[in-house]
Write a structure and sequence with these properties.
This protein is mainly α. Among the domains are: about 265-365; about 365-540 and about 685-755, no CATH class; about 545-680, no CATH class. The chain has helices at about 1-20, 75-80, 265-310, 315-340, 350-360, 370-385, 405-415, 415-430, 435-450, 460-465, 470-500, 530, 545-550, 555-565, 575-580, 615-635, 650-660, 665-670, 680-695, 700-715, 720-735, 755; strands spanning about 45, 50, 510-515, 595-600, 605-610, 735. A hairpin with a 5-residue loop joins strand 1 (about 45) and strand 2. Helix 4 (about 315-340) packs antiparallel against helix 6, helix 6 (about 370-385) packs antiparallel against helix 9 and helix 16 (about 615-635) crosses helix 17 (about 650-660). About 20% of the residues are buried.
Length: about 775
């Protein structure tokens, strides 16, 4: 059987070879390209282009015999699929391709196709209106989250936060969340029932570009203007501004139709608000009465201090001490009452600030025995300062020379090196050296006063009014910015003084001796402008000769200053000002001539104490002091605790701003004190240089003085290093040195009034 099968197979194979058949082509392929001149076919690329120069290579880089590479592309790859791409057959792609997730829009399904069984908006799935027309059906679903029929909820990732839960708060639905409408269809003003306006108390349309309109302020630090959120608020206290603390139901508290109000909580809220308003009114009434009493006590104390400084003797000193003690007792009583008030429960900003400021009374918070000791030490130091006097240089019988006006004139006008050095040394020997022991006691008492007021030390207490945690660092930063300018001024002045006094007295690389700078403390260099002025003979800004020539006197200077403020629509001085102020040195009694402005806490009694002289500098100072009076009169209707500068430096800033305006060449020319033209470069440079000699060079002195006291209060400097540390800071900040060697037997900072009076100076 097997043999028969083999024979049949051989016969069939022979028959097939003997038959000649030609099969019809199954693919309608284009003919091959003709051969090139070299017998090779050009390579045909899939896009139909040919390259007659490219030679297809075989595996080893050898051309095959038929002109095609062993790895040549198949014909289907080179010439496309075996069908025409322009078939007229209907596209049978499904409406929802398998690669697209159910419920998610894509480019194909966003088209309005009339043959679609339903548009992508699921609301029309069973509707007869298969072709959804959004122009005709705009008002069809007014309560829907999105009026856009082509955007499904699943397209909004905000709905799938927290693992798919749209909103974990069951009291707030999605339509109440304005976040869902940002980056979506813009607001349509024709839709009055749009849910985005449902809880808008102002009735203003929702605007996604303005977060404060149409919804809750998204800023987490935002608080309502009428409420205060203290850090140490009692967590058990129910804030009347929040009906449901910690709950999203506070989002729309003004909606009368809000469905989530519990009657019991509503009654509690109403009772809480009533109690809150009653307590607030009670506190406001209490502070009003306190303000009246504070003004009265302040007026009595200021009057006693005025009598002492304008007539220095034992009787006025005793009266001043008694008045100060009485005022301190009143402040301490007030302080005890303020401490009993829970400041965390005060939500009125104005009332809170009043209580806060009255809770800090400085040395008055000390126990009575320590407070009495503190006041006596300060008054003893002031008595030493005010009573210090020296004899004239090389004239031992001419004595009784005081700081103002005698020593001040000598330091400003004398150019005798030895006379200046003698005056400088004698003043410090008679003033500062005699109060060193008292100052050491004062440091401990001042630190105790700071700690009683809940501060670390006196330095922390003194910087509190500036409301900055990094006040010293900020001062240092400002000084570093100004330092390059000061270094240039310092180098220029040192060279000019070296040329004037000689190289044997001033080293070109050493600090400048402090006594030749035209001031007892070296804080202002304006009095040596005749030596260092850049353009000698062109300094028209010194108007003292012209003032004397025109018959100026202290009263005229104050009247001109008053006209300056009235021209800016400010108030004129009250009549009592001219009757009670002291504008010149009285010939019959010693007074403290330090220029100062006084507010007697009555709202109508304001005075100036100044030993005015007809000079350019005093003319500027007069305007400075009246600027303080103008500030007094402008805040006279505020509560007593607010009748002061915004911070200790604000009063001085106002006075200095007025001084700069008055000292301008244009203003002096308008007054007739300058006859020359002001349009000159040399005059401008002289004017700016004179300002720098007063304002810029003052900064290192003020910084050194206050940095020295901060270091003393914080115990960074021992008592045995007080004077040495003072001159180290003076050299570090200002580049000045004492004219002779100093020791710890001296106390040179005490020669300054603000040290003797224990008054902050950085302002």
């Amino acid at each position: 059987m097997f043999r028969k099968v083999i024979k049949c197979t051989i016969v069939v194979s022979f028959l097939l070879q003997s038959i000649h058949c030609e099969a019809d082509p199954q693919l309608n392929l284009p003919p091959l390209a003709p051969q090139g001149l070299d017998g090779r076919r050009p390579v045909t690329f899939p896009n139909g282009e040919t390259s007659p120069t490219r030679i297809p290579l075989g595996v080893d880089g050898v051309v095959s015999g038929d002109g095609n590479s062993v790895h040549d592309r198949s014909r289907s790859e080179r010439f496309g699929p075996p069908y025409d791409g322009n078939d007229d057959e209907e596209d049978e792609r499904p409406n929802y391709p398998a690669q697209q997730p159910q419920g998610r829009a894509n480019e194909y399904d966003r088209q309005d196709r009339p043959d679609s069984p339903y548009s992508y908006n699921d609301r029309n799935r069973y509707s007869d209106d298969r072709g959804f027309n959004r122009n005709q059906n705009r008002e069809r679903y007014p309560g829907d989250r999105s009026p856009n029929p082509y955007v499904s909820d699943v397209d909004n990732p905000l709905l799938y936060r927290d693992r798919g839960d749209r909103n974990r708060n069951r009291y707030v639905s999605d339509v109440e969340n304005p976040e869902l409408y940002r980056d979506r269809t813009p607001y349509n003003p024709s839709r009055d029932d749009d849910d985005r306006n449902r809880y808008n108390p102002n009735g203003r349309p929702y605007n996604p570009n303005v977060p404060n309109i149409g919804g809750r302020n998204p800023d987490p630090n935002y608080r309502q203007p009428g409420l205060r959120e203290p850090i140490n608020r009692d967590q058990g206290f129910r804030d009347p501004g929040q009906r449901f603390p910690g709950d999203d139901r506070n989002r729309y508290p003004d909606d009368p139709n809000y469905p989530y109000r519990n009657p019991e909580e509503e009654r509690f809220r109403i009772e809480n608000e009533r109690r809150f308003r009653a307590e607030t009114e009670k506190l406001r009434t209490f502070l009003t009465e306190i303000d009246r009493k504070s003004s009265l006590e302040c007026s009595l104390n200021v009057a006693a201090q005025w009598n002492f400084e304008t007539n220095i003797n034992d009787a006025t000193q005793v009266e001043a001490l008694a008045a100060q003690q009485r005022y301190n007792d009143f402040q301490r009583l007030l302080w005890d009452q303020m401490r009993r008030i829970d400041q965390t429960k005060i939500f009125d900003d104005k009332l809170y600030r009043q209580v806060r400021l009255m809770s800090i009374i400085g040395p008055s918070a000390l126990p009575p025995d320590q407070l009495d000791r503190y006041n006596r030490i300060v008054n003893d130091m002031l008595a030493i300062f005010n009573g210090a006097s020296i004899c004239a240089y090389e004239q031992p019988f001419e004595c009784g020379l005081r700081l103002q006006p005698h020593l001040k004139d000598i330091m400003a006008k004398s150019r005798d090196w030895n006379e200046l050095q003698y005056t400088w040394l004698e003043w410090r020997r008679k003033s500062g050296r005699n109060m060193r022991d008292l100052f050491e006691q004062l440091v401990d008492l001042t630190n105790d006063a700071g700690r009683v007021n809940n501060f670390t030390d006196a330095a922390d207490y003194w910087t509190f009014p500036y409301e900055s945690r990094n006040f010293r660092e900020e001062m240092e930063q400002v000084w570093r910015e100004i330092l390059p300018l000061y270094e240039m001024i310092h180098a220029y002045v040192r060279r000019k003084l070296r040329e004037f006094y000689g190289p044997d007295k001033i080293n070109k690389n050493a600090p400048i001796p402090d006594h030749i700078l035209g001031d007892m403390y070296g804080q202002s260099w304006q009095n040596i402008l005749d030596i260092v002025i850049p353009y000698p003979g062109r300094s028209f800004l010194e108007v003292t000769p012209e003032m004397q020539k025109q018959g100026y006197n202290p009263l005229v200077m104050f009247q001109i200053a008053e006209e300056f403020f009235v021209s800016m629509n400010m108030s004129a001085m009250p009549p009592d000002f001219w009757a009670t102020s002291i504008l010149t040195q009285p010939p019959d009694r010693p007074i403290l001539c330090q220029p100062s402005s006084w507010d007697f806490c009555t709202g109508k009694d304001y005075r100036v104490k100044m030993c005015t002289q007809v000079t350019h500098k005093d003319f500027i100072t007069v305007h400075h002091e009246l600027a303080h009076i103008q500030y007094f009169m402008n805040y006279r209707n505020n509560p007593k605790v607010f009748r002061d500068g915004a911070n200790p430096g604000f009063h001085e800033a106002i006075g200095d701003a007025i001084s700069l305006s008055v000292a301008s060449p244009k203003h002096l020319q308008n007054l007739g004190l300058v006859q020359k033209s002001v349009d000159d470069t040399a005059h401008d440079i002289n004017f700016l240089f004179s300002l720098a000699m007063e304002k810029v060079v003052f900064l290192p002195f003020a910084l050194a003085l206050e940095a020295w006291r901060y270091d003393v209060f914080s115990k960074r400097v021992r008592k045995e290093q007080y004077n040495c540390h003072w001159w180290l800071l003076r050299e570090e900040y200002g580049g000045v040195k004492p004219p002779v060697l100093r020791s710890e037997l001296d106390f040179d900072p005490g020669a300054k009034y603000h040290v003797a009076a224990n008054i902050p100076y950085i302002k």
